[in-house]
Amino acid sequence: MYNPTKVIAALRMGREEGEDIVSPIHVSVIYRFTKRLDKPSAEVKYGRENNPSVILLERALSIAENAKWCLAFNTGMAAINSLIMGVVEPGSKILASKLLYGSTRSLLDAYSSRLNLKVAYRGPPWDELLSSIDQASAVIVETIGNPTLRVPPLREIAKECRNSGCTLIVDNTFASPYLYQPLRLGEDVIVLESITKYIGGHNDVMGGVVCGLKEEDYERLWDIRRLHGTILQPLDAFLAARGLKTLHLRMRHMTATAARLAETLQQKQEEGIVARVYYPGLRSHPDHTVASDMLKHGYGAVVSFDVGSERRVREIMSRLNVIVPAPSLGGVESVISYPYESSHRNLPEEERLQLGITEGLLRLSVGLEDPEDIVNDILNALNTKTRLEP
Ligand SMILES: Cc1ncc(COP(=O)(O)O)c(C=O)c1O
Which of 62, 96, 108, 229 lies at a 20 to 30 A Cα distance from 10? Predict the structure, then answer.
């Protein structure tokens, strides 16, 4: 269970009289040599290796994620890249969900020839993924998959992985540690987040984090981060820490608004104004049962819906006043994006359609504006003269 008291306490510096309560931003790149420590990863001497502001954030994130260690990177993609370089052996077989973030898929595809990785995309449907695990050395999934918000049965996947000795990599970005902590599934799991989204939460900082339980993974990834030069920068660590302090409040509020919006949109589907709504909290969602079992504090703050055609997409986007047409998710501003042309444009057309990524699909990241204003903005934009084409 996510404990905000412990997370906030971990970010509080001062315990003695007169000490800082809020962590300073440590901008020094060099630090006075101390007695050599056994592990280079424990020393703070040079900014490309370690930084006190980053270490403080990593400790708090370890509590948030129920991890033994976390390592912060300058973007979510840097975190994913290091994870693949550090944990996956060249020549090995990777099994991944088809619904990965588009750039993660592009990265895996680029590496499949360079590192001779054998990458296979399976599921949803999740049986397809479960039945292929025995041949893989690593499995990569997202807790809530973008953009149709599919939720894989992570407990079953982790069990299969444990039985066949593979590592389960979970991109938990859409859930955040507030809604789900994949590391509770066992030692062989590694979790990553794009800090840029819910943890940062204000669309003003980029970052990524990888967290785990095995010490040897930590050492390998720390070394890769040092060599690639992809450590999170001190000001960004400060901003991420400030975001983390309010993660629980933002998630609670935004998931409640998202649930309300999803229900309103479902009514619009019944009235023939919307073709389909995707939200794991709706009974109509294919993973509703699995999601209800996993996500005890809400089903996330992203709602996707299909309005039938590209023409209606453009029309609706142009009529929005509160919600901003923009990429990304997880910030206080509600933003709407068009996955067919943005995050998933590189997928083959046949696969896009099989996954529900149609020309009419919109993805909305619900923010912190008044719930009434968000719902009314969508209703107003939908209420055009043009309805679904028969
Ligand atoms: C699920 C998911 N993982 C990873 C990333 C990459 O994160 P970043 O943009 O911080 O590199 C994104 C970005 O949109 C994402 O949506």
Answer: 229
